[in-house]
Amino acid sequence: MMKILITGSSGFVGQNLNKLLKEDYTTVPKSFRYKKGQKIEVNQDVIVHLSGKVHDFKKSSNSNAYLEANFELTKQLFDGFLASEICKTFIFISSVKAVADTIIEVMTEDNIPDPKTDYGISKLAAENYILSKRLPKNKRFFILRPCMIHGPYNKGNLNLMYSLVKKKFPWPLGNYKNKRSFLSIDNFNFVVREIIKNTTLKSDIFNLADDESLSTNNLVTLISENLNFKSKIWCMPKSLINIIAVLGDFTRLPINSKRLQKLTENYEVSNEKVKNVLKIELPTSAKEGLNKTFNSFN
What are residue 91's DSSP bridge partners? Predict the structure, then answer.
């Protein structure tokens, strides 16, 4: 039976992926940390590399911490993959943030990467290292760039928004008509499994997202429907909202300039390439996946 090494297996994504893959394969979940001069021996058929340092919203980490966790460790694992006589497939879980932190049009794989944060820069450095190496004919790699992954019991921004909407306060940002892409853990797991199954697939880079993008207003409505009440969405003037956000930068108001940007910016990601190349349709719609996540918050 094929053996699959899963790094970062203790995290939300790693736990879910391991649970799925061990139905058909022998999984080897491991946690790795970067150590200078470390050589990693790989004795499995496939590596799914999830380990890394995610966004630090408290800004308590320096750029070197990101480079060590996301670039240097990936470099050591990829070198182990290249040296292995057994391992044939390396799947690196990067991020859309390796391409851009803000986007105007829908992101595709043709976008020229230009990350601005330490997180995105470190992920792109890992991608570039993988792309710089000449592969033996019997090996292949895949760079996957997921947008925000969510699923049951995942604690993150969706949990915070759910808690806010649950209080039944009117939502004041109705005038903002943004669109954002999400990725359910079911769809993420499905794509990874399809890549592993399709042994004739050649090395490639894929963006990962659900089929539908949603506005923040759509999200508020979906959460309130999940909680069995009708949300109140107010279309307050943007000029007034901007003034309140600036005041929030200096006070303890629930909204400030950074939160307003996150709640109202566009970030749409196309999944057309991965669906076309793998000849697949994703099993879970965006709303189905989000409702699964919201149900777990109850």
Answer: 48, 142
